[in-house]
Amino acid sequence: MKRRNPDYSYQLFDDNEVRIFLEQEFPPKYLKAYDRLTIGAAKADFFRYAILYKKGGVYLDVDSGMTKPLKYLIKPDDSAILSRERHPQFFVQWALISEEGHPFLKKTLEMIVDNIETHRFPHDVHQTTGPAAFTIAVNQCLEENPNIPHRIFEGIEFRGFLKFKYKLGKFFLYEKKSEHWKKMQQTIDIIKPE
């Protein structure tokens, strides 16, 4: 990625740095909501929206990659670039491209904090913080204001610019299938009680 995009800076955050960021950049209820999440994938979802909302940029999951330089994907006037999931009713959120302060991200953060505070989906990461929550927020924004700046690609991999399931990603993820968030959410509550 660095070789293809030398003009970009790269940042990785550990769990402690994420908490510090949320504490410094958001009202207290955001860190409180984040701390109630019990599954790492849900916490990663929360953080990707938060960091891009405050800083803007490009977010990629650790198990994804890039096939072409971003300068060929991102136009100077782009505010947000979305791509559809394999199930086209959802938007991809393993890769996010957005300017800071974008309304899609603001709405998503508000929605997931509410999902956590109300304990709405205790066994569903997808609905609480994942692609369903993101998609609902985007659709609500566009219903309220269809002129919000954005571009949408059809197809999961941003017309071949980005790649899901990067071959080295498996080394950074789960040692056992039982530790995968899809399995864990079936047996544990993904939201700690207050």
Automatic annotation (TrEMBL):
UniProt key word Ribosomal protein: no
- Judging by the UniProt lineage, the source's domain of life is Bacteria
Q: Which InterPro entries match?
A: GlycoTrfase_DXD_sugar-bd_CS, Nucleotide-diphossugar_trans, Och1-like
Q: Name one GO molecular function term.
A: alpha-1,6-mannosyltransferase activity
Show the stretches that span the lipid bilayer: none
Q: What is this protein called?
A: Glycosyltransferase sugar-binding region containing DXD motif-containing protein
**Organism whose genome encodes this protein:** Epilithonimonas hominis
The Gene Ontology biological process terms listed for this entry are:
protein N-linked glycosylation
The record's listing under Pfam families reads:
Gly_transf_sug (PF04488)
Q: For this UniProt record, give its keywords in alphabetical order, as a comma-separated list.
A: Transferase
